[in-house]
Specification:
Largest sheet: 2 strands, antiparallel
Radius of gyration: 23 Å
Number of strands: 2
Number of helices: 9
Structural class: mainly alpha
Strand content: under 5%
């Protein structure tokens, strides 16, 4: 071959092969994130390492380090994942329900479902506290809090009440982790009604937003 001969052009990779590799990579990445959440649930954020996560996922350690170069990257991905899922569920609830007692009933049922199997919730709060120490992680937690605030805004435009609702919902979910008998959907609903609808015994609906009446 002549020294100045052009290098051979590699054959193009078929699109189906490329798509298959991408899908496989995304599945592995997702498996590693889910394994991270299980490790956090069981051992706390301090128990997360590339080795423990890879073992939990049933993958070689090199797979974890390939997709997440550092533990910071891994924990950030896990936090972003759970907060995005929570925010999406809240946005879906807002889209599928009206602003009234029915939406509070649905919200209370969702909260009861979450605390009934608290493992995922425990992992979320471990990661939530990690974000409290590391401001760069707060973009993900802000998405959840913003979605929760938007739910409250369907009932009121009072910023104090909105902030109260977000604080109470997060506080109730956190407290549920500290008891062997978490609150029921009916108990959650009673709290939400007391915050966003007319208190019982007032004899009338709440005036919550723009002078509009919201019936209880």
């Amino acid at each position: 071959m002549a020294l100045n001969a052009p290098a051979p052009v590699p054959a193009p990779v078929p699109a189906a092969v490329t798509d298959g590799r991408r899908a496989k990579g995304e599945r592995r990445r997702r498996a590693i994130i889910e394994a991270t959440l299980r490790v956090v649930e069981r051992d706390g954020a301090a128990g997360v390492s590339h080795r423990t996560v890879a073992r939990e996922a049933g993958l070689p350690t090199t797979a974890s380090t390939y997709y997440f170069q550092s533990l910071d990257d891994l924990l950030t991905a896990a936090l972003t994942s759970v907060m995005n899922e929570d925010a999406a569920r809240m946005r879906q609830l807002i889209a599928e329900t009206d602003a009234g007692a029915d939406s509070l009933h649905t919200m209370a049922g969702l909260m009861a479902e979450v605390v009934a199997t608290p493992g995922h919730l425990l992992a979320e709060y471990e990661l939530f506290l990690l974000a409290a120490r590391r401001p760069e992680l707060r973009e993900a937690t802000d998405r959840w809090l913003d979605a929760l605030a938007d739910f409250a805004r369907r009932f009121t435009d009072d910023p104090v009440r909105i902030r109260t609702v977000t604080a109470v919902v997060d506080g109730l979910l956190l407290q549920a982790l500290l008891t062997d008998q978490p609150p029921s959907a009916a108990e959650f609903e009673a709290v939400l009604r007391s915050l966003l609808l007319a208190p019982s015994g007032t004899g009338g609906p709440a005036i919550a937003k723009g002078g509009n009446e919201i019936g209880s």
